[in-house]
Model the fold of this input.
Amino acid sequence: MHPDMKKCIIIGSCALMLLTSCAGEFNKVYKSTDNAYKYEYAKEQFALGKFQKAASLLEQLVTVKKGTDDAQECLYMLAMAQFCNADFDAASATFKKYVSSYPRGLYAESASLYVGNSLYQSAPEPRLDQTPTIGAINAYQQFLDLYPDSKLRAEAQKRLYELQDKLIMKEFFSAELYYNLGGYFGNINKNDESNYTSCIITAQNALKNYPYCKNREDFALLIMKSKFELAENSTEDKRIDRYRDAEDECYGFINEYPDSKNIRLAERFIAKCKKVIKD
Done:
């Protein structure tokens, strides 16, 4: 056998023995009834970055340590171990438990922030359900209300604004989808209910709820285009009124966004509206 191969086998065997030994030691501690030793071992695992092992032990100990001098530290360390192990749902629940159990505790400020941080990590991309995003926003807002002078305030505000942008994009994608569907389902003139109408309502609500959003013009453009398409596809009895509404919307767009790259589009819409109304 080649010497290098022998060397690799020896090294591999030693590593396997070490892993087996470590696993055996952990299992022994896990089954131990010596809670003081178990707690010190859990803290050691946490310090070594072995968060799954630390969390497994701390989950056993939080009830045992309740009412003792170690209770706060044990619960907070469990939450941090879960967070560092990317178990964000469990971490947010444990941080919440700490805040409710120890509202004036040693780690209350940090735990309050990490409720938001945990939910922030779970927040999905804008096209998906945003329940975790809303939860994180509420958690950060609560933190800011409780600790207005916190050194961690800037971090919470930055992430809160980032999450709000995600909600705004969710609304934009919804409005854009309605516009792209257009008259696809053939309901464009039915009781004023259509995809274009839904686009207008969704975009208007977004502008009302987030008046200073950075993509305000994008929403306004969808509204203008949808109103024009409604006019273009109108029945005779609604045609003139819809063209007038579309024309007003175009002028409003030009006034609010005079430097927009879509000014020429608005002007083309206006020309068409005037022609129809005049005729």
User: Anything to note?
Assistant: The first helix runs from residue 3 to 31. The CA atoms of residues 20 and 30 lie 15 Å apart.
